[in-house]
Design a protein that fits this description.
Elements (H helix, E strand, L loop, with lengths): L7 E4 L2 H4 L9 E3 L21 E10 L2 E13 L7 E4 L4 H4 L7 E6 L6 E7 L4 H10 L4 E3 L9 H14 L17 H15 L15 E2 L2 E2 L2 E4 L14 E4 L1 H8 L3 E3 L5 E3 L1 H5 L26 H12 L2
Parallel strand pairs: 3-7
Antiparallel strand pairs: 1-6, 1-8, 2-5, 3-4, 4-5, 6-7, 9-10, 11-12, 13-14
Length: about 300
């Protein structure tokens, strides 16, 4: 199941619905919204219309009308201008849309390539509410003071983490703010996952598993020293773990010793419902592809003492 970020909108024009002269394909994504979509490759002579495939669940008002794979792409118009569009498999929405209808869009918080698109047609109560709310604006976040997380915000957090990983490791982040904005918190978490998971080839460091489906995966980025206790956003304070082992690690059912091997808490090992953990006791975890970014000894020792209690 998907949890979605804050909504953003576009008031559709004729060329979004196919009603304009020339029957342009797809829905134009204006510059005010491009930060809420994946960053497209730069067009080139060899690839003038680069694209990224997205998945979307489509609604007309409150009725689900499809789950589709669509195309987010540049159209370069012969090099004269660049235009971003959603172009494939949207007829269930575009086919019933008219100019000045609202398309409300939301991006999944767990899968950056999954969206929810909801059409609100003229004459509906929700259309009237949206028109009153946004006034003359044609596109943008529905809540200006609480926008969705942008690609720029994630990139900034990624740069900050990369800088931390280039200096000697610190166990705690003295600059961490417990009352950071929602956008900052989500951007920081996305950047942390984006830097940790590839180091383990999107596989659990304990069991080597983790379901995957094209550009989505089950494995999660775990802080060894929890972020809530000012643990660093730094790959050296991270592990890739499947959901089951992430939960057990955070609960202190097991830790990792100085020899990089799994240590079960005796009480956890004695509980019959934890039998699935027993085969991993004494086994070494998988190390990341970049040795310099492997979990720092200080983080593992802290977790073993303060979370596992050994």
């Amino acid at each position: 199941m998907h949890e979605f970020d804050r909504p953003f909108f576009k008031r559709l024009a004729n060329n979004d619905t196919g009603a304009a002269k020339g029957h342009q394909g797809g829905i134009v994504i204006p510059k005010s919204l491009d930060g809420f979509f994946p960053t497209l490759p730069t067009p080139s002579v060899g690839n003038p219309a680069p694209d990224i495939r997205l998945n979307a669940v489509l609604f007309v008002e409150n009725e689900q009308v499809g789950i589709v794979n669509t195309r987010y792409q540049y159209q370069s118009w012969g090099g004269k201008r660049l235009e971003r569009r959603l172009t494939d498999n949207l007829s269930a929405v575009r086919g019933v849309a008219a100019a000045d209808d609202f398309l409300v869009m939301e991006r999944s918080l767990s899968d950056p390539l999954f969206y929810r698109l909801r059409l609100h047609r003229g004459g509906s109560k929700e259309h009237a509410r949206l028109a009153s709310k946004v006034g003359m604006e044609r596109s943008g976040p529905l809540e200006v003071g609480d926008p969705p997380v942008s690609e720029k915000s994630v990139a900034q957090s990624d740069e900050e983490q990369e800088a931390r990983e280039s200096v000697p490791f610190k166990l705690f982040d003295d600059d961490a703010h417990f009352h950071e904005t929602r956008v900052k918190r989500i951007a920081r978490a996305k950047a942390f996952s984006g830097r940790v998971l590839p180091l383990y080839d999107y596989r659990c460091a304990v069991c080597g598993k983790g379901h995957a489906d094209e550009d989505a995966w089950e494995v999660e980025a775990a802080h060894i020293v929890p972020r809530g206790l000012k643990g660093m956003d730094d790959a050296r304070n991270g592990l890739a773990l499947c959901r089951s082992h992430h939960w057990a690690f955070d609960r202190g059912l097991f830790g990792i010793g100085p020899d990089r091997k799994v240590i079960l808490h005796p009480h956890a090992a004695a509980e019959v419902r934890n039998a699935h953990l027993l085969p991993f006791s004494g086994l070494a975890i998988s190390e990341p592809l970049k040795p310099a970014l492997r979990p720092h000894d200080d983080t593992l020792a802290w977790h073993l003492k303060h979370v596992v209690g050994l």
